[in-house]
Amino acid sequence: MQYRLLGDTGVRVSTYSLGSVMFGGWGNQDERQCIAMIRQAMDAGINLIDTADVYAEGESERIIGEAVRGRRDEVLLATKVNGPMGKAPNERGNSRLWIMRAVEASLRRLDTDHIDLYQLHRPDPATAIEETLGALDDLISQGKIRYVGTTTFPAWQLVEAQAASAQRGTARFVCEQAPYSVLVRAAERDVLAVAERYRLGVLVWSPLAGGWLAGRYRKGQSPPEQTRADRLTEYRPRGGRMAERYDLGNLANAAKFDAVEALAQLAASAGLSLVDLAHAFTLAHPSVTSAIIGARTPEQLERTLAGADVRLDEATLDAIDTIVAPGSVLNPADLGWDLPWMSADARRVRPPRRLA
């Protein structure tokens, strides 16, 4: 396993981090197996475990807390706040009110006295960034969190947050967790450049594009019996962005089929698996710190860990660029967030209603 600095923090992070969205009810419901996988990843040199309070409604955090008991100082625990954790209107978002409640719940589930990296799971248009930063700064002063970061933030909001931190003298975000893969290259347009400019670490989520680059979806083959969207059905209603990522009738996904075929041939010619090619592609970008691997089974984890040291040569990287152009994204649903300023209401000034 190799290690890279997380921005300018001085903290060294393994180039593979362990994602946990599949631990618990959303994926692998065998708790003992999940714990064994976490410990296997640690034994392989992974020193960052990433989770979120919303993953299986807190179950993922609880499993991780059990897995690292007795080995807590060997890893960095990263979790997130923002997603809905209940039906009440204030049980979500990036307000001081919710952050102060949510962090205590995460600490209990993780069975720890501090969180190494506390991340905003998504931007919150309803909350001023100054309010959020003030709450996070207080938590750092209290020793409950060590560093703060963001997830799936647009480049302009990353810049805004850095300016707000400097102006208010609060803690600053030290990293961004961005969607980035061969099929989802939008971050190359601006987010990765902003990260370089402000010395932010970059953790990459979904480097396999939700399983598309694991070879689970191939032309002429039957789709898998159960997709990630299917596994989430119990917890969240069907439809929306998740369904769009796997709708095989979607023309954007047809383009993904074509790209996967070409990438599979390229990987074979380079003597690599498609999975190794996909992970190594993200790590080839100089702004990327670590790729978050998301195995659901021990077999998937073992296969992925075997490629931890794979690096791509220039010819292979150039060939990838001819298959999926730099900065492009084949299916916008893979970006992970619907921009609120792109909604119809935000784009149109509507005429006043006539009074009857």
What topology emerges from the helices and strands here?
Blueprint lengths: L2 E3 L6 E3 L1 E4 L11 H13 L4 E3 L8 H9 L8 E6 L14 H15 L4 E6 L8 H13 L3 E7 L3 H14 L4 E7 L11 H7 L3 E5 L22 H4 L8 H7 L4 H19 L4 H10 L6 E4 L4 H8 L8 H10 L20 H4 L9
Parallel strand pairs: 3-4, 3-10, 4-5, 5-6, 6-7, 7-8, 8-9, 9-10
Antiparallel strand pairs: 1-2
Helix pairs in contact: 1-2, 2-3, 5-6, 9-12
Write up this protein.
- The chain has 13 helices and ten strands.
- It is an alpha/beta fold and 356 residues long.
- It has a single domain, classed as NADP-dependent oxidoreductase domain (TIM Barrel), CATH 3.20.20.100.
- The strands form two sheets. An eight-stranded parallel beta barrel has the order 3-4-5-6-7-8-9-10, surrounded by six helices. It has a two-stranded antiparallel sheet with strand order 1-2.
- Helix 1 (31-43) packs across helix 2 and helix 9 (251-269) runs antiparallel to helix 12 (314-323).
Describe the structure concisely.
The protein has helices spanning 31-43, 59-67, 96-110, 129-141, 155-168, 191-197, 228-231, 240-246, 251-269, 274-283, 298-305, 314-323, 344-347, and strands at residues 3-5, 12-14, 16-19, 48-50, 76-81, 115-120, 145-151, 173-179, 201-205, 290-293. The chain is α/β, with parallel strands linked by helices.
Tally of DSSP β-strands: 10
The SS-based structural class is alpha/beta
Oligomer: single chain
N-to-C SSE string, H for helix and E for strand = EEEHEHEHEHEHEHEHHHHEHHH
State the domain count.
1
As laid out across the biggest beta sheet, the strand order is: 3-4-5-6-7-8-9-10
Q: What's the alpha carbon Rg, rounded to whole Å?
A: 20 Å
- CATH class descriptor name: Alpha Beta
